[in-house]
Write a structure and sequence with these properties.
single chain, 236 residues, alpha/beta, 5-stranded mixed β-sheet, 35% helix, 4pyrrol_Methylase_sf, transferase, rRNA processing
Length: 236
């Protein structure tokens, strides 16, 4: 009987809030690998301590990803098995991971991604907007390219999903009103799976008013409804 192909790199989602969101498989993999690549070893160290896992960790973040990848690939070629985790959620989704995965595949190393926590899926499902077609936009460019990106989405009919930080939330909602209109429906979720989780639905005008008078704390997922596909047919 042929043995299954050995996995060289595991992408392991970690909880985005509630520590109970870790899967049994994720715990097993983290215990079995030779080394864990962590976005922030201090943050991940607390999680591993909570899970009772003692394992070597190496720092792997956006600032050293390119420099460290060749060395890591060479080590995996010698037989080391590694797991990549981010501070929260699935590696590679607005977190380090893409470059390492690409280089592993180029070198015929097997990569396996475990299913698990990510912020945009619960935010999308809770929004009540259509989920059959959607586009994940992540964080918008802060300066260069921001207006171009928004202009390209002005006629998007799919539901759109964005990540945003608290100090830019109101600015982003205001820009959305400029490009999509104040009556466009939007859903804003914060602190998903954490103690102060909250989702607010309404028009862009309504949510701009709410967040103008409300303390803005936490990490946010914005789910914006797409332009209504029936717009052209209604004019016939």
């Amino acid at each position: 009987m042929q043995e299954p192909e050995k996995t060289n790199l595991y992408l392991v989602p970690t909880p985005i809030g509630n520590l109970e969101d870790i899967t049994l498989r994720a715990i097993r993999v983290l215990k079995e690998v030779d080394v864990i690549l962590a976005e922030d070893t201090r943050t991940s160290g607390k999680l591993l301590q909570h899970l009772g896992i003692e394992k070597r960790m190496h720092s792997h973040h956006l600032h050293n990803e390119h420099k460290a990848t060749t060395h890591l690939v060479d080590r995996m070629k010698t037989g080391e098995v590694m797991a990549l985790i981010s501070d929260a959620g699935t590696p590679g989704i607005s977190d380090p991971g893409f470059y390492l995965v690409r280089e592993c595949l180029k070198n015929d190393l097997k990569v396996e991604c475990l299913p698990g926590a990510t912020a945009f899926v619960p935010a999308l499902v809770k929004s009540g907007f259509t989920t059959d077609r959607f586009t994940f936009e992540g964080f918008l460019p802060i300066k260069k390219g921001r207006q171009t990106r928004l202009q390209s989405l002005a006629n998007e009919e799919r539901t759109m999903i964005f990540y945003e930080s608290p100090h830019r939330l109101l600015k982003t909602l205001t820009q959305f009103k400029e490009y999509f209109g104040g009556e466009r429906m939007v859903s804003v979720s914060r602190e998903i799976s954490k103690m102060f989780e909250e989702t607010i639905n309404g028009t862009l005008d309504e949510l701009i008013h709410i967040f103008t008078t409300k303390a803005i704390k936490g990490e946010f997922v914005i789910v914006l409804s797409g332009e209504k596909a029936g717009k052209a047919s209604s004019a016939e």
